[in-house]
Design brief:
Largest sheet: 2 strands, antiparallel
Radius of gyration: 40 Å
Distance between the termini: 72 Å
Strand order of the largest sheet: 1-2
Shape: flat
Helix content: over 70%
Length: 271
Amino acid sequence: FVSISLCPSLHFSFHPFISPSSLANIPLSPETAQDQERRIRREIANSNERRRMQSINAGFQSLKTLLPHTDGEKLSKAAILQQTSDYIFALEQEKTQLLQQNNQLKRFIQEFSGSSPKRRRGAEEKDEGIGSPDILEEEKAEELRREMLELRQQLDKERSARMILEEQVRSLDMVLHPERLKVITQQVQEEQAHIQTQTLLRLQQLHAETSAERDRHAAHSPQVQRHTGYRWGTQTERERHTQSTDGETHQQFLNGRNVLFSFLSFVLFLL
């Protein structure tokens, strides 16, 4: 007899003259079926856990690539999170400083642009009696123009750097807080569904009011014609009234949709 093992807890013995293909017809015991089911569930759980860990590791690697001066350096997950938090805080401080500098430069440019003609006129009035040459005035004006140009170039550079930093902060915020985007998107979808529901209800209400008004005018049309001579209820006038009511309702729906899209664009811009 030869003994074989199909699993760690199950052994079969068969005669050398028995065909191995006949083993497929041997029914499995309840314990063997339970072991196989337990093993399959364990393999599925292990596969899901591996995928989850791979996703987490990929997220940490993405965070690590955003951090400065970390090329080739081995960092733990806690260190990556700590450095990411510090980097975001530093970016926020740098953004605040750049905004303050931009405001100071704007005020300086406005003050300088507003006071430069007065300064030139004052200098001309002072130099009238002593016969100062015009070359000095031209040199001063040229120097002022160069300073203005340099200040504007510096302002443009700082504005570009601020926009880059803001984009990096938004990217880090989306990586660290992906659930926030899902919540905002769900809120926008719910708001859109609510607006659509309200619009449909309003359309039904206007349709009912239009039908009632048309029936009421049709019922009183002989009396109205007799007293006022105004013929309400003709097919053309009823169609005009219905079209104007539907046009107003459609315009209200378009206005609501535009407001919703503007709100969604503003939310995405903040993210």
